[in-house]
Design goal:
By secondary structure, this protein is an alpha+beta fold. It contains two helices and five strands; from the N terminus they run ααβββββ. Keywords: Signal.
């Protein structure tokens, strides 16, 4: 490899390392969901109900991935008060959560949400 090409490649690699931080940290504070810290949004009240959860891809009427929660016998879109991560319900059976919240505009807007083991 020519010295100029080697220098350019090394410079580009160093620039990427510096620009991306190089420490594996993405710049977001994930303390609440990566390290198990408890927030008010993860502590359901005594009145919270247990709901079945499903990915939208498993629902014929939806057919695309998304978070759905069973309320009054039917599945509706879930707006969770915490970051659930990328496709948390996809291809997983028997998921449940305790949640407080209400139906708004055809969605269940949860004010608290905690997965049930």
């Amino acid at each position: 490899m020519k010295p100029l090409t080697t220098t350019l490649l090394a410079s580009a690699a160093l620039s990427l390392l510096v620009a991306c931080g190089g420490d594996g940290h993405d710049g977001h504070d994930h303390a609440d969901h990566e390290h198990g810290a408890v927030s008010d949004a993860t502590v359901p009240s005594d009145q919270a109900q247990t709901h079945a959860l499903i990915c939208g891809c498993a629902l014929e009427e939806v057919g695309a991935c998304g978070e759905y929660i069973e309320v009054d016998g039917e599945f509706v879109a879930l707006e969770a008060p915490i970051d659930l991560g990328y496709m948390p319900f996809c291809h997983k059976d028997g998921l449940q959560a305790r949640a407080d919240g209400e139906l708004k505009d055809g969605k269940f807007v949860a004010t608290t949400f905690a997965m049930v083991d």
